[in-house]
Specification:
CATH topology: Rossmann fold
Strand content: 25-35%
Bound molecules: adenosine-5'-diphosphate, magnesium ion
Helix content: 25-40%
Strand order of the largest sheet: 6-9-10-3-11-12
Radius of gyration: 18 Å
CATH class: Alpha Beta
Largest sheet: 6 strands, mixed
Structural class: alpha/beta
Shape: globular
Number of domains: 1
CATH architecture: 3-Layer(aba) Sandwich
Number of helices: 8
Length: about 250
């Protein structure tokens, strides 16, 4: 589904990703872990097509096509979702309206008919049920006064509505409270399916107590330096990232 080969990315003239390769199949959940500044968010941002990231070498293939050739909206339409894409507060803009606009923009880009309010409300009810969520966040302004956990729930709800094939979640390095962490994990677990893959980017092992990844990658100094099963996350937890740094080949 996703194949990243020898990806080199610079930000503001500085090389951040230095030959990153990673392959992911439909239905899988991959975790990318790594120390602060390793380039984890850079990876998520470059896959989503955010501005300011210069790809200097390498390829990213998504379902056989060149992902890097697509505009961000086209990437979304083709089924790539970077969670926490819209973490901003938009006071006064009703969240339901916002979500429907986002969904219809995606449907339009895919050549699908837009949903009217009745159809959208039915879809909302279905997705709320799948995620065991209440509708209280829908009647407020977008992220307006949301707690960390509420923001995450809203983002997961957005993910459920947009039904991406590949969902990339960047947990950032600012510690999420346990409430927010569980919201993310419950959402990922509820939305796991044979046709959908997740790339879960996290600094912390504790998220993986709730989401059991199929594959764990360690990103350090702009490259994947280790790939393994869930036990790799536990090893990292036990030994810390210094253990990984010690294992990076000197020629790198
Ligand atoms: P991580 O998410 O693993 O903590 P990032 O991808 O955020 O790492 O950052 C990797 C490196 O790139 C860091 O050294 C960071 O300072 C640098 N970096 C990221 N974004 C920018 C930017 N917009 N301008 C300059 N440097 C950046
Ligand atoms: Mg960081
Ligand atoms: Mg980060």
């Amino acid at each position: 589904m996703l194949k990243i080969e020898n990806l080199h990315v610079s930000v503001a003239g500085k090389e951040i990703l230095k030959g990153l390769s990673l392959e992911l199949q439909p239905g899988q959940v991959h975790a990318v872990m790594g120390p602060n500044g390793a380039g984890k968010s850079t990876l998520g941002n470059v896959l989503a097509g955010r501005e300011g990231y210069e790809v200097t070498a390498g390829t990213v293939t998504f379902e056989g096509g060149d992902l890097l050739a697509l505009e961000p909206e086209e990437r979304a339409a083709t089924g790539v979702f970077l969670a926490f894409q819209y973490p901003v507060e938009i006071p006064g803009v009703n969240n339901t309206y916002f979500l429907r606009t986002a969904l219809n923009a995606q449907r339009k880009a895919r050549g699908e008919a837009e949903l009217d309010s009745m159809q959208f409300l039915k879809l909302v009810r279905d997705k709320l049920a799948v995620l065991h969520l209440k509708d209280e966040l829908l009647h407020r302004g977008v992220n307006e006064g949301f707690s960390g956990g509420e923001k995450k729930r809203n983002e997961i709800f957005q993910l459920a509505l947009l039904e991406p094939k590949l969902a990339i979640l960047d947990e950032t390095d600012s510690g999420l409270d346990i409430d927010a962490l569980k919201a993310v994990a419950d959402g990922v677990n509820a939305l796991r399916s044979q046709n959908r893959a997740f790339l879960v980017i996290t600094h912390y092992q504790r998220l993986l107590d709730y989401i059991k990844p199929d594959v764990v990658h360690v990103l350090a100094d702009g490259r994947i330096v280790e790939t393994g099963g869930p036990e790799l996350a536990l090893e990292l937890e036990a030994h810390g990232y210094a253990w990984v740094k010690d294992r990076i080949a000197p020629e790198s």
